[in-house]
Design brief:
Length: 114
């Protein structure tokens, strides 16, 4: 079973940057969507950004212009570059992959202090 392993979370001051990475432990479908969701305390999990195998991207309005998603299809990895971070970006960030099945990572904490 393919597993997703995230890395790169942490604590940063407002206005700072973090880079999240996610690696799939095996081969995922040739036509897949990978991306990131987040869940803040007391809130529902929400989409942050996704990217298809072909490179088409989708971003939540709240992160447009600040976050950038990319992927390496050969390595089955997806990366989220987060700039100009705000306290409201504080959440657990989950890696996501969907082809014929859906897989989630275990999550990595991102905390932005004001």
């Amino acid at each position: 079973q393919v597993q997703l392993v995230e890395s790169g979370g942490g604590l940063v001051q407002a206005g700072g940057s973090l880079r999240l990475s996610c690696a799939a432990s095996g081969t995922i479908g040739s036509r897949s969507v990978m991306g990131w969701y987040r869940q803040a305390p007391g809130k529902q999990r929400e989409l942050v950004a996704t990217i298809t195998t072909g490179g088409s991207t989708n971003y939540a309005d709240s992160v447009k212009g600040r976050f950038a998603i990319s992927r390496d299809n050969a390595k089955n990895t997806v990366t989220l570059q987060m700039d100009s971070l705000k306290p409201e970006d504080t959440a657990v960030y989950y890696c996501y992959a969907r082809w014929t099945v859906v897989r989630w990572g275990q999550g990595t904490q991102v905390t932005v202090s004001s």
